[in-house]
């Protein structure tokens, strides 16, 4: 179990955002981190469902985090439960949204799961053995499903890279590019404080997503 009291002296507030699909294995963590100038950085934003937005706003208020005073928004990778509120928060605060370039197309909405299934159908059928009927069902369900997010405007996006150091009020953290779960997944490592913001490379009891990522 995570002892959140350990994070308080580091200026970290952990917000638990519910995720509506069981494949995620539980809530997604959003980390608000104090900046030296009195503003906040966000690592992750949670999913943009009504429940996700309500949880984000309520817990931010409970922890004294002003979401209109964000200096930057960093997302680990291009899945909806991690960047789903980025566009809205960027609009409200003026903060840019930082992601690894290999996942930028995802948060811009250019690599949606339903369209990728259609685009790579031949590969799924011939190389992985997924039956055509199942692909049809998956594509139809995905195409008809309610959008869980707003995608991020290209002009709001900035990039973070392997080895880049992010400075916060109480510590520095190094960007680690760890592709696998997605091509552009990153983690943050605050080596001196022995803290790793691990996001989805560590998912107990959860199998990888069955997509070409």
Topology, element by element:
Layout: E1 12-17, E2 28-34, E3 40-43, H1 50-62, E4 70-74, H2 80-83, H3 86-93, E5 96-99, H4 104-107, H5 113-119, H6 121-128, H7 132-144, E6 157-159, E7 165-167, E8 172-177, E9 186-190, E10 195-197
Parallel strand pairs: 3-4, 4-5, 5-6
Antiparallel strand pairs: 1-2, 2-3, 7-8, 8-9, 9-10
The profile of the biggest β sheet is: 6 strands, mixed
User: Which class of secondary structure composition applies to the elements?
Assistant: alpha/beta
Spatial order of strands in the largest sheet: 1-2-3-4-5-6
What helical percentage do the residues reach? 25-40%
What is the C-alpha radius of gyration, as a whole number of Å? 18 Å
Beta-strand portion reads 15-25%
Uncertain residue segments = none
Number of strands: 10
User: What is the molecular shape?
Assistant: globular
Average pLDDT rating = 89
| Spatial gap, N to C terminus | 30 Å
Quaternary state of the chains: single chain
- What's the helix count? 7
Question: Helices and strands, in N-to-C order?
Answer: EEEHEHHEHHHHEEEEE
Summarize the structure in words.
With 213 residues, the protein is an alpha/beta fold. The protein has helices at residues 50-62, 80-83, 86-93, 104-107, 113-119, 121-128, 132-144; strands at residues 12-17, 28-34, 40-43, 70-74, 96-99, 157-159, 165-167, 172-177, 186-190, 195-197. β9 and β10 (195-197) form a beta hairpin. A six-stranded mixed β-sheet has the order 1-2-3-4-5-6. The protein has a four-stranded antiparallel β-sheet with strand order 7-8-9-10, with no helix packed on it. The protein contains seven helices and ten strands. α5 (113-119) packs antiparallel against α7.
């Amino acid at each position: 179990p995570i002892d959140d009291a350990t994070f308080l002296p580091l200026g970290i507030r952990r917000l638990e955002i519910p995720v509506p699909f069981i494949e995620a294995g539980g809530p997604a963590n959003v980390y608000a981190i104090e900046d030296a100038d009195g503003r906040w950085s966000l690592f992750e934003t949670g999913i943009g469902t009504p429940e996700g937005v309500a949880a984000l706003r309520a817990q931010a208020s409970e922890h004294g985090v002003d979401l209109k005073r964000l200096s930057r928004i960093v997302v680990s990778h291009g899945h909806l439960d991690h960047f789903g509120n980025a566009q809205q928060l960027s609009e409200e605060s003026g903060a840019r949204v930082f992601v690894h370039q290999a996942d930028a197309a995802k948060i811009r909405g250019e690599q949606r799961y339903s369209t990728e299934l259609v685009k790579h159908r031949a590969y799924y059928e011939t190389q992985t053995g997924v039956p055509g009927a199942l692909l049809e069902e998956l594509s139809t369900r995905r195409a008809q499903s309610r959008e869980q997010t707003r995608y991020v405007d290209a002009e709001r996006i900035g990039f973070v890279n392997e080895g880049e150091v992010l400075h916060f009020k109480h510590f520095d953290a190094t960007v680690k590019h760890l592709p696998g779960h997605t091509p552009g997944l990153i983690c943050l490592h605050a080596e001196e404080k022995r803290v790793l913001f691990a996001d989805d490379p560590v998912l107990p009891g959860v199998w990888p997503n069955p997509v070409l990522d």
